[in-house]
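name: query_chain
kind: protein
chains: 1
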Amino acid sequence: DVQLVESGGGLVQPGGSLRLSCAASGFSFDDYHMGWIRQAPGKGLERVSSSSSGALSLVYADSLKGRFTISRDNAKNTVYLQMDNMKPEDTALYYCATFSVAFGLWGQGTQVTVS
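structure:
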């Protein structure tokens, strides 16, 4: 199946850390830019971070620089989001997605709650 499956969400205290994972299957993962998008309760979608196919270009939302780190392992068809020094405003549903105009694919999301 062509899919993205996120994992690693949960409840964390302010100042804590979480690592999200997104496992891809059914397509050529290393051909695509990948990234993370989140949606906080009652708010719109926010692009969190993205990685080019070879991870040479990494982009972050300005408000998250220094706290979040995106990485990918093309051998494992997986993209990660390391979140450190977390804040209550990081509470959201986090989606993994292909960042491609030609091939848009999203995962089902994983909930992150900072409280």
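note: The CA atoms of residues 27 and 35 lie 16 Å apart.
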